[in-house]
Specification:
The complex is a heterodimer of chains A (335) and B (165).
Chain A lengths: L10 H33 L15 H11 L10 H17 L10 E3 L2 E3 L9 H22 L3 H24 L1 H7 L4 H10 L8 H14 L11 H4 L10 H25 L11 H22 L5 H30 L1
Chain B lengths: L4 H14 L24 E3 L14 H5 L5 E7 L11 E9 L8 H5 L5 E3 L14 E2 L1 H5 L11 H4 L5 H4 L2
Antiparallel strand pairs in B: 1-4, 2-3, 3-5
The chains are: A mainly alpha (335), B alpha+beta (165).
Chain lengths: 335, 165
């Protein structure tokens, strides 16, 4: 087993790096809510929020203060421990999944090594999907512990949807793994720098990945779980205040993390054309990917639940499998 | 309903194009849209030129009000200081703005053109008691004038047969 060069990073540097990245992800989440509202507004011929500060830039702060100050009431008969832990658990897995995403090539400053990822593990991709799968527990438990029919139905639907599209998500990256010959995300990025961005040979795989990612984060057009008119609010009906805020954070951070994974696997991660500004190129590509998520939300109407499940199992899964098989054949044939 | 992939992709171009059009939102406090000429806003009690009030306290407006929100108590005009131009005047005249539906029936019912519905609509208060408007509040001119759209464009023109007989 090859020893990763990144294990020579000092523990306190790793700690500071983790802190900085987590805070940056949370900041990105906060301003993604604002960007989403303004971008949706502009696509619908209206301004987004523009009162809370110049161009609405203080709107996330206002939302945060409101959520924190709001009364976090709960129905009387909820199961106390699962009810409280569920949103925190969802938020935890969403944030933890970001730790394997590479955002830079690694730097050496003053003899100290600084990695380009927070957690450089040899099986980074598997860890990512494992955390995503475990994160579904937060939604199940949250809806079930709420002691409400709407929450239970909403959470069952959400989890069925998430589990269905996870299969296609994981299968669609098999093509990238075959091309990159590694499960470590930094290795995949380095191979893309040497050859071509994997979106070119794996275009079908990228499409499947992106559609499965939109469904995995329960965003429009696959957002029946949180459709207000269908299910009140699904699994987070009985949550208010910061507990609901944590569920929202889990959803948006999931979106950010899956966009980051798409950028890493298909668009060369932190590589950029002119200047070697790794993290900035990564952030720019991440912003474009998040913008595409928002663009899809603004354009397409919501899918009915049976249409959603049919699409996931009857269309995406066969296409993902075919993609994996054909990629395997081509790789084996060309050595 | 069969899936339409090509049309869906064309839909994305539509939403993308909207990014470059100017939004059609009216930014309210900075730009106040002109109201139509017959807009029914806050009520106003009127006076004659010589300063006497037009309202004689007949309470026809209170009778016509569907929401039953006008309270009129009449009193005799004492000779030295007349208040209104008739025999009686409205000693107490209150309108409960939280019940008023701004239909304009009181304006239609008044035989002396004493009460009309003006153009003022920024009449929010912080407590329900402040929403019961008394006579002197209703007699006042509006604090802020609201721009009115031009009658040529927006008011119903007088029909031809009423002008040319």
């Amino acid at each position: 087993m090859t020893l990763l060069a990144s294990t020579s990073e000092a523990w306190w540097i790793a700690l500071i790096e983790a802190l900085v990245i987590i805070n940056l992800v949370l900041l990105t989440f906060a301003y993604t809510t604002l960007v989403e509202r303004k971008l949706l507004g502009r696509m619908q011929l209206r301004y987004g929020p523009n009162r809370a500060g110049p161009f609405g830039l203080l709107q996330p702060i206002a939302d945060l203060v409101k959520l924190v100050r709001k009364e976090a009431f709960h129905p009387g008969k909820v199961e106390a421990l699962p009810y409280i832990v569920a949103p925190a658990f969802s938020a935890f897995t969403a944030l933890a999944a970001f730790s394997v995403i590479p955002y830079g090539e690694g730097w050496t400053v003053d003899g100290y090594q600084i990695n380009g990822v927070v957690a450089d593990v040899p099986i980074g991709l598997i860890l990512f999907f494992a955390l995503g799968s475990v994160g579904v527990y937060g939604f199940i438990v949250g809806g079930w512990a709420s002691d409400s029919k709407y929450s239970l139905l909403g959470s069952m639907r959400t989890c069925a949807q998430l589990v269905s599209y996870e299969v296609s998500l994981s299968l669609s990256v098999l093509g990238v793994i075959l091309l990159g010959q590694s499960l470590n995300l930094s290795d995949i990025v380095n191979k893309q720098i040497d050859s071509v961005w994997y979106v070119a040979p794996q275009f079908v795989g990228f499409l499947v990945f992106f559609l499965a990612a939109v469904a995995e984060t329960a965003r429009a057009p696959f957002d029946l779980p949180e459709a207000d008119s269908e299910l009140v609010a699904g699994y987070h009906t009985e949550y208010s205040g910061m507990r609901w805020g944590l569920f929202q954070m889990a959803e948006y951070v999931n979106m950010i993390t899956l966009s980051a994974l798409a950028v890493t696997l298909y668009f060369g991660g932190w590589e950029g054309p002119w200047a070697p500004l790794g993290p900035l190129w990564f952030f720019l590509k991440l912003a474009i990917a998040i913008g595409i998520f928002i663009w899809i939300r603004a354009t397409v109407p919501r899918l009915r639940y049976d249409q959603l499940m049919r699409f996931g199992w009857k269309v995406l899964l066969p296409v993902a499998t075919l993609n994996a098989v054909i990629t395997a054949l081509v790789v084996a044939w060309t050595g | 309903m069969s899936p339409q992939p090509v049309d869906t992709i064309k839909g994305f171009a539509v939403t993308f194009r909207q990014l470059f059009s100017k939004p059609i939102t009216v930014q309210y406090p900075e730009y106040v849209r002109p109201v139509y000429p017959r807009f029914r806003g806050r009520h106003r009690l009127h006076r004659h030129e010589n300063g006497l009030e037009k309202c004689v306290g007949c309470s026809l407006c209170a009778a016509a009000c569907p929401a039953d929100c006008i309270r009129v108590v009449a009193a005799e005009n004492a000779s030295p200081n007349r208040v209104s131009a008739g025999e009686r005047y409205a000693r107490i005249y209150e309108i409960n703005m939280s019940r008023c539906i701004f239909c304009g029936y009181c304006e239609l019912a008044c035989p002396f053109d004493a009460i009309t519905l003006g153009n003022e609509y920024e009449i929010s208060e912080y407590s329900r008691d402040d929403l019961i408007y008394t006579k002197d509040m209703l007699l006042q001119e509006p604090i802020k004038t609201v721009p009115v759209a031009s009658p040529d464009e927006f008011d119903t023109p007088i029909p031809y047969y009423q002008v040319h007989s």
